[in-house]
Design brief:
alpha+beta; Pathogenesis-related Protein p14a; four-stranded mixed beta sheet
């Protein structure tokens, strides 16, 4: 009996040991991996353009936050691999888009689609290696792909700019071929909810390039609530001078601008302006004009940097909306965002100001007490 008991215990030990060894071999090759953390939820911006300080703070924080973000592009030119860009760069592009939409008073909660991003990255690569822009690139192009060609036909395209700089370029809409301000109209199309971006940085051999997907499933859908019934750039209210450009625009859905006129004045003095040729089939119907005989074709042309806040009164007359002629009047106050205005309130810091200074080698967590 003792022998049987001993054998039974021994057998049990062997079985248990075997289970331990088996379990160890079962999990020895298990992969330890963490998924990507969830991204911040989509943010919807809003700003009161009737407040100089609100706009100044919005520009100096939100707009400036998307400046200088590294693209960190991975690619292989020889194999036409479009690669990827940093998530921070894509976030900065969305931030810049939503900044402009918030200034305009339209829904500013654009999110970027990963599918659109992938296709736009191929489109941007095609533009940079072929050193040209086309919304209908031919199959003979270097690094041509069907997805890249699809993106080219549904995206704003830029050569020489990438990332947030390209978005600002679309709002400026310089160039003799952009008299309709079409890129701006797509960025500021109220119904859009989803966009995409593909970005190529400048190199010793290639130009920077961007493709921004602008045509989502909401095109032609119900128009959302907007601050104003029209979409104009620059918008009514306070606007920092760096984002005011020679081409101004006024959009109204389904409006007929064939008999419309525009006049502008500053400090009661009429300003010279030139209407651009009307072009439909680009977002919402839009009237475009060039102010003060500025050169709207040159990307280097900047609007006037004001020494003091300057109010521009805009009147758009004879806009045919559903058979009824209407007039619109609004003011744009251009200002320097580096200069605080009369509504600026300096931050107030509360608390004692006689805090005892610690010795330089003291640990702040354990203050040195002296007697």
């Amino acid at each position: 009996m003792l022998t049987e008991t001993f054998l039974s215990v021994r057998t049990t030990r062997i079985i248990l040991l075997g289970l331990v060894l088996f379990q160890g071999s079962l999990f020895a090759d298990r992969i330890r991996e963490l998924g990507e953390p969830p991204r911040n939820p989509a943010i919807s911006f809003a700003v009161n353009t009737g407040s100089r300080e609100d706009v100044r703070g919005f520009f100096n924080t939100i707009y400036r936050a998307s400046d200088g973000v590294a693209i960190l592009w991975t690619w292989d030119r020889a194999s036409c691999t479009p690669g990827t860009t940093a998530q921070e760069l894509r976030d900065a592009v969305a931030l810049r888009i939503n900044f402009f939409r918030a200034m305009e008073g339209i829904p500013a909660s654009i999110v970027l689609s990963n599918l659109y991003n992938v296709k736009d990255q191929q489109a941007a690569l095609m533009m940079t290696v072929n050193r040209s822009l086309s919304h209908a690139p031919p199959p003979s192009w270097i690094c041509y792909t069907a997805d890249g060609a699809e993106a080219a036909g549904k995206s704003n395209l830029a050569l020489g700019d990438a990332g947030p700089d390209a978005i600002s370029g679309y709002i400026q809409d310089y160039g003799a071929n952009n008299t309709a301000a079409g890129h701006r109209r797509w960025i500021l199309y109220p119904q859009t909810k989803t966009m995409g971006t593909g970005d190529i940085p400048e190199s010793d051999t290639d130009f920077a390039a961007n493709a921004t997907w602008i045509l989502d499933a909401n095109f032609g859908g119900a128009r959302p609530a907007t601050r104003d019934e029209f979409v104009s750039w620059p918008p009514p209210g306070y606007v920092p001078y760096p984002i005011v450009h020679p081409r101004w625009s006024f959009a109204y859905p389904n409006a007929n601008f064939s008999g419309a006129t525009v006049s502008m004045s500053s400090n009661g003095v009429s300003m010279a302006l030139r209407l651009e040729a009307f072009a439909g089939d680009i977002g919402e119907n839009t009237l475009v004009w060039v102010t003060a005989n500025l050169d709207a074709d040159d990307s280097r042309t900047t609007f006037f940097r004001p020494s003091a806040d300057t109010v521009y009164a805009v009147t758009v007359r004879n806009v045919n909306i559903g058979g009824t002629l209407r007039d619109f009047t609004y003011n744009v106050t251009v200002f320097d965002p580096a200069i605080p205005g009369p509504d600026y309130l300096p931050p107030v810091i509360s608390g004692p100001d006689n805090r005892r200074r610690l010795p330089m080698d003291a640990n702040p967590a354990h203050p040195v007490h002296t007697h």
